[in-house]
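Chapter review: from sequence to fold.
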Amino acid sequence: MNLLSEIREDFTSKLNGGRELLQVENKEYPAFVIRNEDGYGVAVPYPDNGVAVAEKFESCRLHTREFNIAGYPYNRYLTLTSYSDELWFEFASVCAQFAETGESGEIREKLIKDPLSWWNDWRELLGNSLSEHKPYSVIGEMMALDKLYGDDKSILWSATEAGTHDIESSNGSFEVKSTLKRYDSTIVVHGQHQLESKKRLMLYFCRLEKSQLGVSINDMVERLVKKGYSRDELNKELFRMGYEAGASVRDEKYKCLETRKYEINDDFPKIADSSFVGDHIPNSIVEIDYTVDLDGIDYTPW
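The C-alpha cell string follows.
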C-alpha cells in the first residue's frame, strides 16, 4: 500500500477523530487522516509560532487548527479538509501530496515554512477557480463605517444580515458601493429594496485602487478598534463574509481615490415598489437588478 491508497482507504472508513498515516516516507514528520466538524482530510503538526492560515478553494480549506489526537503530543495542526463527500477520490490525491515528507523531511519543512506558497501552487494548477474575493468592497464598507462611527456610536456594520443595509444606525441607513474603475461611476443595485428604507437612507460611494500605500482589511480592523468598535463584532462580520482571521486576502491593500455620498430621496433614480402601477411590483417579478450612473447626480464628499 502506498500513501495515496492509505488515504483513500481511510476516507472510505468514515473514521471520526484522527489516525496516523503509516506510509509517510520519513516517520519523524507524521501526518494524520482526520474527520471532524470541518469535514475530512489530512493534518500535519504545526509550530505554535507559525503564521495562522485560513484559505478556501471551492469545497477545500487550508487552516491552522488547535485540537488533540489521542496518544500524540501535538496540539496545533495545519489541516487540509473538504466538506464534499462527492469528490473524496480526487481530493485524496491532493491530500497525499500535502502529507509528503521527502526522504529527509525537506518537503514537509518547506510546507510548514510557507504554506501559502503550497496553496497558491495548487490553486493555479487546478485552474484558479477559487471564487474571487473582492476585498476592496469590504474595505470601502469599513472606511464608511470608520467615518460614521466617529460621529455616532450607535452605528452597526450589518452587511450580512438579510433585510438590512450595509450600515445601520438608530436614525439612518447606509448603503456602500465601491469600484476599482478610475473613470466609471456606475453602480449595480441588487433588488428593488436595496435603495429603500423607513429611515433616512444614504449611499456612500468609494473609488479605490490596489496600492501598498493604502490600507488592508486588517488595517481597518485596528483603526476601528482604536475608536472603540468591538474587535469581536468586526471579526464575526468578516467571518460571515468569508474573510476570517488568518486569510491572506485580509492583507491586500487599497488606496482611496475618491469618496461621494448621495441622499436617496425622490430625486435619486431608482426602481422601487412606487415605480409600478398600484405601488407594487408585479407578483411574477421576484427581483430586479439594475445599473445606475452616478455622474450628474448631486453629491458631497465624505
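Two observations follow directly from the output. The longest strand covers residues 200-215. Confidence is low (pLDDT under 50) at residues 128-132.
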